[in-house]
Amino acid sequence: MSEEGEKLGLIDAIVPSQELLKVSRQWALDIAERRKPWLRSLHRTDKIGSLSEAREVLKAARQQAKKIAPNMPQHHACLDVIEEGIVHGGYNGVLKEAKVFKELVLTETAKGLVHVFFAQRMTSKIPNVTDVGLKPRHIKKVAVIGGGLMGSGIATALIVGNIYVVLKEINSEYLQKGTKMIQANVRSLVTRGNLTQDEADKALSMLKGALDYSDFKDVDMVIEAVIESVPLKQKIFSEIENVCPPDCILATNTSTIDLNLVGEKTSSQDRIIGAHFFSPAHIMPLLEIVRTEKTSAQAILDLMTVGKIIKKVPVVVGNCTGFAVNRAFFPYTQSAQLLVHLGVDLFRIDRLISSFGLPMGPFQLQDLSGYGVALAVGKEFADAFPDRTFRSPLVDLLIKSGRNGKNNGKGYYIYEKGSKPRPDPSVLPIIEESRRLANIMPNGKPINVTDKEIVEMVLFPVVNEACRVLDEGIVVRASDLDIASVLGMSFPNYR
């Protein structure tokens, strides 16, 4: 028996029943703290005066577990263990935990989580980069070009990681907006308890704004985070090549554009690399490091090191349209659009994908990212993979009707401050018009599909594309793509 179990056994033997309930509550809280943060809702147990009240608290926690992760039985098993400890004492709780563990460790869920655990640790091993004796250089100062949503998030992650940042914008108005977004990001980290106020103040002191390249003369790295425009990116890279130190890493945050195009007009292809963050960049844990055939091992190693310093998980991938994650998942949106135009209810698709374990369905995700992004990215993929692209008229129709998703509060869903997104019935005529234009329903009638078939029709094409990504050598190993999908697309790790 463990030391914890022995202590709880002694407590059962000598502590009066009221004291036993008190000690068992604390034991339950300790278990909850070790398991999952959402179980901390059990802090209400300090107000419990009876076992019936304890059961009410546990009932509420079970409802929350079902809502957050309906497909994860171990969450409910944890609550079974906690209930046993509260009702019958900590020693019985320990015995219950041992029994439940033996059952859960053999499940597919456990196998998936173990795989993810080891796979994440493998991402730091890159042949001909981490095994050739190179040492990472110390990156002290980074310039970020563009203070929009992505640029401000990247800058936030860097200053919180104690790296000095020069944020460059094209005018003082945009620079002020970018600075305010960074300040808001840092404040939100304080509110969440991720930073103390002193740490926040120190982080903000490491940020400097700029309207020209005069502060770029001593930077160790530049991360360009402007709009997805090839001519604009080429112009920026030509300029920074001339003003930055000769060993400065030249990185782009592009999510789809070929890096060879970005650096086409420079003579520094060995320093050009992709630093693809996922939005919001200061929160999402994945950093997709994109290399070309000419990118040096030193640049890759240095960016991997920066990623770890700012608490990201760097995954090194090859250069192609969409790179690894977006490339593998572009059929995800395509399949969902295809199903809608075959007559399947759009909101049903979102509900089923959420029930499968993703945080939201493909259409709510499109609302969140904005339709401008959907059109730009969709064009890149349509040009690169025309043989497996479905050209949906739906997004164009949404924009013409004055919708832009969460950005203006109107999309497939209605967005109101203080309320959860809810399906918008007024979008249904737009969907019907899009179906009429696409005209792919067999005999003009909606298809009949089961819930299981819908999930498979949305996700199986992702598996197929992932196989293509592997076949083309875009990732070092299959498990790297697993981790990138979990951390970048929030694919459920227990799956």
From TrEMBL:
Gene3D superfamilies, alphabetized: 1.10.1040.50, 2-enoyl-CoA Hydratase, Chain A, domain 1, NAD(P)-binding Rossmann-like Domain
Transferase keyword on record: no
Domain 3-hydroxyacyl-CoA dehydrogenase NAD binding: from-to ranges: 141-319
Native source species: Dovyalis caffra
InterPro entries linked to this entry: 3-OHacyl-CoA_DH_CS, 3-OHacyl-CoA_DH_NAD-bd, 3HC_DH_C, 6-PGluconate_DH-like_C_sf, ClpP/crotonase-like_dom_sf, NAD(P)-bd_dom_sf
GO biological process, one term: fatty acid beta-oxidation
Domain of life of the organism encoding this protein: Eukaryota
Gene Ontology molecular function: any one: NAD+ binding
Ranges that cross the membrane: 142-167
Domain 3-hydroxyacyl-CoA dehydrogenase C-terminal: 322-415
UniProt KW keywords: Isomerase, Lyase, Membrane, Multifunctional enzyme, NAD, Oxidoreductase, Transmembrane, Transmembrane helix
This protein's GO CC annotations: peroxisome
Similarity comment: family membership: In the central section; belongs to the 3-hydroxyacyl-CoA dehydrogenase family.
UniProt-listed Pfam families: 3HCDH, 3HCDH_N
Pathway linked to the protein: Lipid metabolism; fatty acid beta-oxidation
Catalyzed reactions per annotation: a (3S)-3-hydroxyacyl-CoA = a (2E)-enoyl-CoA + H2O; a 4-saturated-(3S)-3-hydroxyacyl-CoA = a (3E)-enoyl-CoA + H2O
Name of the protein in question: 3-hydroxyacyl-CoA dehydrogenase
